[in-house]
Write a structure and sequence with these properties.
By secondary structure, the chain is an all-beta fold. It is built from no helices and eight strands. The strands form two sheets. The protein has a five-stranded mixed β-barrel. It has a three-stranded antiparallel sheet with strand order 2-1-3, with no helix packed on it. A hairpin with a 5-residue loop joins strand 5 and strand 6. The chain is globular and about 45 Å long. It binds zinc ion. The site of zinc ion (ZN) has 8 residues, from loops.
Amino acid sequence: MQPEMYAYKCTACGHLHHPAHFVCVQCGSREFEQAVLAGEGTLLTYTRVYNLPEGYMKPFIAFGIVEFPNGLRAAGQMGTDELRLGMKVRAEVGVVKEGVGQDFYGFIFHKAE
Ligand SMILES: [Zn+2]
């Protein structure tokens, strides 16, 4: 089963956060519940980072800001080099850093079918 990406919903006012916050940015509450970030997101903007730390086996990594159907915006690594503003993407677990040493896993935005 594919792990799911979560937002953190304030139980007092309903405002969504990602990543998790200790205090709601809208109302100051400290109570949250997990909400699945389901469906396809829309790529709002992206950038490519070429000056990577030692140990990366890629010429660059792309990062994007994605808006989900519920309005939440999340930043993350992009899993495709064919990036286009407005394209539909889906969050999947993958290797976010590979190469020399240990691999690290996290959510990557891939082009939706
Ligand atoms: Zn709140």
